From TrEMBL:
HTH araC/xylS-type domain location: 229-327
Assigned GO CC terms: cytosol
A GO term for molecular function: transcription cis-regulatory region binding
Superkingdom to which the source organism belongs: Bacteria
Name of the protein in question: AraC-type DNA-binding protein
Keyword Ribosomal protein part of the UniProt annotation: no
Repressor among keywords: no
Source organism phylogeny: Bacteria, Pseudomonadati, Pseudomonadota, Alphaproteobacteria, Hyphomicrobiales
Length: 329
């Protein structure tokens, strides 16, 4: 069974900073991507991979910079990968780092994704592929990923190291020369994205001391076929136009309404149950804030009318928000 990919929202902040620095409209980017601007405040929140594709594409078009994805990842390097970057940077050799990234990427950063190593004679390819069928923004996402792969290798080989070449999928690459200048190597088109370099550098030793790794505290990435968990994350993130509607969520997940309902039933739950659980969790956290008006809580949860929020909360809990606030610890 195919699933839906998620990634961390940590790339959204740098995207917005780049748009602002270039004089673009951040509001227009989020509006065209149909995403809530609040995502920028939670870098470790899981977001749909296809949403990240769309946001990155909208941002690049907003400022007219085809090389934006490459600039973002090259500038941020391993640090931009968060906990995954710390783990990879602690590997003893480059080969171990690539193997570690392959094993940990689905857990710490991104699902529906493959990264790995292919060796053919004297050359190695550090490859990247998204396994979910997503059309819009795929090439931009690959270019973003190539910058991060470059950061992995440069951690071991030094900041001036350059690959033999890079590969991007697709029939054409707008802005190729500019992107090549950012990545520091020629780019060719092919069936599998990745970096090509001499195989002997795989034994490069980590030049820095191995880090003491702290436990991973970020929220787990949903399993691609755990539809209840995937739906929960989308409901937590919200929509720019208010509380998410079922049909809109089905569109974002690439499923029909009936298919999603059937898969939730197989997990012993339903859209109404999950929506109620998410509403209660978010609302109770806000109700614990001293002096925060019900109207403001409703607004933060995406309701334009506090009465609609109160009605939804009562349906989910059996009591009004004010009554619940008096009993919360």
């Amino acid at each position: 069974m195919s699933g839906v990919g998620f990634t961390r929202a940590r790339s959204i902040g740098p995207v917005i900073q780049a748009v602002e620095a270039s004089g673009g409209s951040v509001a227009r980017v989020f509006r065209r991507a149909a995403l809530p601007a609040s995502l920028v405040d939670e870098p470790d929140r899981p977001v749909l991979l296809r949403d990240q594709f769309r946001l990155l594409t909208c941002a690049a078009r907003e400022i007219g910079d085809d090389a934006l994805p490459a600039r973002l990842s090259v500038d941020s390097g391993l640090q931009g990968l968060g906990p995954l970057g710390l783990r990879v940077a602690a590997a003893p050799t480059l080969r171990h780092a690539i193997e570690r990234a392959h094993a940990l990427t689905p857990k710490l950063l991104q699902t529906a994704t493959w990264t790995g190593l292919t060796v053919r004679g004297p050359l190695a390819q550090y490859g990247y592929a998204v396994t979910e069928l997503i059309g819009i923004g795929r090439q931009e996402n690959e270019i973003l990923a190539l910058g991060y792969l470059l950061g992995v290798v440069r951690h071991f080989m030094g900041p001036s190291w350059q690959p033999t070449r890079a590969i991007v999928t697709g029939g054409a690459l707008p802005g190729r020369l500019t992107i090549e200048a950012v990545l520091g190597c020629p780019i060719t088109l092919g069936p599998h994205a990745g970096l090509i370099f001499p195989v002997d550098i795989l034994n490069a030793i980590n030049p820095g001391p191995l880090s003491d790794l702290e436990p991973d505290e970020a929220a787990p990435i949903p399993d691609p076929i755990d539809w209840a968990a995937c739906l929960t994350e989308l409901l937590r993130a919200g929509e720019p136009s208010g509380p998410p509607k079922l049909d809109r969520l089905c569109d974002r997940l690439g499923l029909t309404r009936r298919t999603l309902q059937r898969r939730l039933e197989a997990q012993g739950t339903s859209f109404a149950k999950i929506r109620g659980q998410v509403l209660i969790t978010r609302a109770e956290a806000l109700l614990r804030t001293p002096g925060l008006p019900i109207g403001e809580i409703a607004y933060q949860l995406g309701y334009s009318d506090p009465a609609h929020f109160s009605r939804a909360f009562r349906q989910a809990t059996g009591q009004s928000p004010r009554a619940a606030a008096r009993t919360l610890p």
